[in-house]
Design brief:
This protein is about 60% helix and about 0% strand.
């Protein structure tokens, strides 16, 4: 078998795997743009369309992230707080990555006055607001976890009253065979 067919034709005729060096090309392009830190980017596509017509304007997306705010049991409070925490952590990471990418892209725009590092300073000012959004989302995740903890503390008596009624106390069983 010839070397060109084993490597997908890259050695012989230049028609090799056209995606072989895409990562290197993209890294070189982004690195040349700003010289600042650029996190690796992974793209994940999830198709969440379920065929139902969207109603209520912008509410359809929020319903996909959080369960309905029905708090008729401690389990529903826990589920809502945990789901909110998980969504806020995920969004915080995404927004922080977006802030870094935005900063690196804007730093590559030439400064209109020709100042040294002028574009980087302007880019940092813009990205700082997006980074603050990421920090606020992280704080929202902390507060969601704290919300359930405070709920357990404040309503401990009611929770325990129902919990004890739901489970019958187990009596110790005497094992007469073990002597």
């Amino acid at each position: 078998m010839a070397a060109s067919t084993r490597t997908g034709g890259a050695a012989g005729n230049g028609k090799g795997n056209k995606f072989a060096n895409v990562g290197a090309a993209a890294g070189g392009f982004v690195g040349a743009m700003g010289g600042s830190f650029v996190p690796p980017i992974n793209v994940t596509v999830n198709n969440t369309k379920n065929g139902m017509a969207r109603t209520g304007g912008g509410r359809a997306h929020a319903e996909a992230l959080l369960p309905a705010p029905e708090f008729t049991s401690p389990a529903q409070v826990r589920n809502y707080c945990n789901t909110l925490r998980a969504a806020a952590v995920t969004l915080s990471i995404e927004v922080a990555m977006g802030a870094e990418i935005l900063k690196s892209v804007l730093a590559a725009v030439p400064d209109p006055e020709g100042r040294a590092f002028g574009s980087r300073i302007r880019a940092a000012k813009v990205a700082r607001k997006m980074q603050k959004s990421a920090d606020d989302l992280r704080d929202a995740a902390k507060n969601a976890a704290a919300c359930y903890a405070v709920f357990q503390q404040e309503f401990e008596e009611e929770i325990n009253r129902v919990r004890h009624r739901a489970r019958k106390p187990q009596r110790p069983v005497m094992n007469w065979a073990q002597q």
